[in-house]
Amino acid sequence: MSAVDTTRLERVQARVLVAPRRRRIPWGSLLLHALLIACIAVVVFPLYFAFVVSTQDLQQVVQRPPRLLPSWHLLENYAQAWRKANMGVMLFNSAVMAVTVAVGKIVISMLSAFAIVYFNFRGRMLCFWMIFVTLMLPVPVRLMSTYEVIGTLGWLNSYQGLTVPLMASATATFLFRQFYLTIPNEMAEAAQLDGAGPMRFLWRFMLPLSWANIAALFVVLFIFGWNQYLWPLMITNSEAMRTVVIGLEQLIPRSGTELPTWNLIMAGAMMALLPPVAIIIFMQRWFVKGLVEAEK
Amino acid sequence: MQRTVFRNRWLPYALVAPQMAVTVIFFVWPALTSLQLAVYRVSPFGDRSTFVGLDNFTKLLSDPDYYASVVRSFVFAGGVTALAVLGALVLAGLATQKIRGLAVYRTLLLWPYGIAPAVAGIIFLFIFHPAYGILPYFLSFVTAYDFNWLLKGWVAMTLVIVATAWTHLGYNIAFYIAGLLAIPSSVIEAADVDGAGPIRRFTAIVFPLVSPITFYLVVLNMVFAFFESFGVIDAVTKGGPGQATEIMVYKLYKDGFIGLNLGSSGAQSVILMALVIGLTVLQFRFAEKKVTYR
User: Is residue B223 part of a domain?
Assistant: First the structure.
């Protein structure tokens, strides 16, 4: 071994010994974080901006350059938007609609999935296909004729008109069916041996096992119900029955002679989007489960 | 799989009755009457209707306005899908790298799904507002072009596309994160050992592995853009300026609900129904594939 090689070997050894003490800066993951934060800033900006505008007075809203920081008029703007657009009534209607549709869909899907999995009856496959067909008939493709049906029933401008026709759900039924099929057969056998009837089995055994699925479906269906637009627009025309998502639009100043009260509109928008967004954030685990599994 | 079957003559019917009642009264029956409307002509006062065969369809299909609305629908749906699916893939790809804070990033990316397209449209309406909007203000430093959506159709179309894609991004991200986390890390590590850089790892391994999800999301986003986006159009542009954002669903609503042209709206319903059936078949094709691949 030559002298040169020996020194090189020593140098390598020295580097190896020193290396663990020196902290490597993880440039790769720093870059990733920076990229992600930049993308998230873009995604979050519209909401941030809507919030900022909802806290400003009219002068700040129209000032150039635009003001990108919150101001002190939050409470007065929200109070004024609340009065001007009848927010209390609209939010109440939206809440009734979202909760009723979600609960109704869950209940009737749970029952029909139970019948399809645990009973053999004439017309079982027909029921299955009928439920499947609802997937292919979104509101727009049966717009005029559904309106006629609701009119014939006298359900225009009513909560039952707003909610009952939306309660059929293929995705929820399929999810429950899928879930029932994962329950070991021994459970139903044991229940039968103990003399429990089907309803008792559903109530005492299946329902307690289904809570995770129910929570997940509730989050997704609540958002679905809250954000409906075409249906309430078609079914209701009275101020008292309007939901917040369709009512918001009337705050927009369309003609040039009206004041550009965008701070009030943004205050209204914040109130309309807060309930579903809060549900997603606080029930995130259920939301992701519901979303990904309901579509399988 | 053989299930333990309960025996009861009437109970199963009682259990499916609510679902069947809603399905028949509000889905199947109206769909059939839509089909019927499509082959009749109803007099302006609604007192007489005559069977006209396929007249409503031939009239509709010879109307250049209708073709324009079909093209606009595809532009709209294509734009929304491209933006929301590609954006979600990139963001989910970044968020599922081995870095800390996945949970926080995921929360920050998911929430837009809670916003109704109509409400998102109103927020973007203000951002795009010709007089007070922040976007035209900043663009005015770069170019003298007038980005006024009230005058320029393509700006209005961009506005509704961006607003709709924004609300749907979180949905796609949820799917991609689930799919990306399901890829075994050994596969990625093997590629790493073989000397594949991050971009090559993504294009050669990750992207093919999530391609079934991509296909599924493309179909779902198309369905969403075609059938659930009425709100953003109605709340923001009302189909305007001119007819620049009048997509098929909005035209159907306008012709049927406002114009009271029942024959034409019936024919339009039938065409949309064919479209949604086609898309649903595609969607379930994917579901079958996923099962066999497992």
Answer: yes
Cα distance between residue B104 and residue B177, in whole Å: 13
Query: Which of B6, B42, B160 to mutate against chain A (most A CBs within 10 Å)?
Result: B6
Contact present, A225 and B38 (Cβ < 8 Å): no
B34 touches B252 (CB < 8 A): no
Does the distance separating the beta carbons of B266 and A115 come in below 8 Å?
no
- Whether residue A164 contacts residue A98, with contact meaning beta carbons closer than 8 Å, is answered with no
User: Cα separation of A204 and A202, whole Å?
Assistant: 6
Cβ of A201 within 8 Å of Cβ of B6? The answer is yes
pLDDT, one tens digit per residue, over B83-122 is 999 999 989 888 887 777 788 888 888 888 899 999 999 9
Contact between A136 and B282 under an 8 Å Cβ cutoff? The reply is no
Q: Are B19 and A112 in contact (CB under 8 A)?
A: yes
CB A68 within 8 A of CB A52: yes
Please report which residue ranges of chain B form alpha helices under DSSP H.
11-23, 29-38, 55-61, 64-95, 102-110, 117-127, 134-142, 153-181, 185-193, 198-201, 207-209, 211-227, 230-232, 248-253, 262-293
Nearest chain B residue (CA) to A51: B123
Give the separation between CA B235 and CA B250, rounded to whole angstroms: 11
Give the orientation angle of helix A74-84 with respect to helix A87-118, to 10 degrees: 70
Could you report the per-residue pLDDT of B190-233, keeping only the tens digit for each? Answer: 888 887 777 788 888 888 888 888 988 999 899 999 988 898 99
| Structural domain count of chain B | 1
Which structural domain, as residue segments, surrounds residue B141? 54-293
Cβ–Cβ gap A144/B34 under 8 Å: yes
Domains contained in chain A, CATH given: 3-54 (no CATH), 81-294 (1.10.3720.10)
N residues, chain B: 294
- DSSP at A24: P
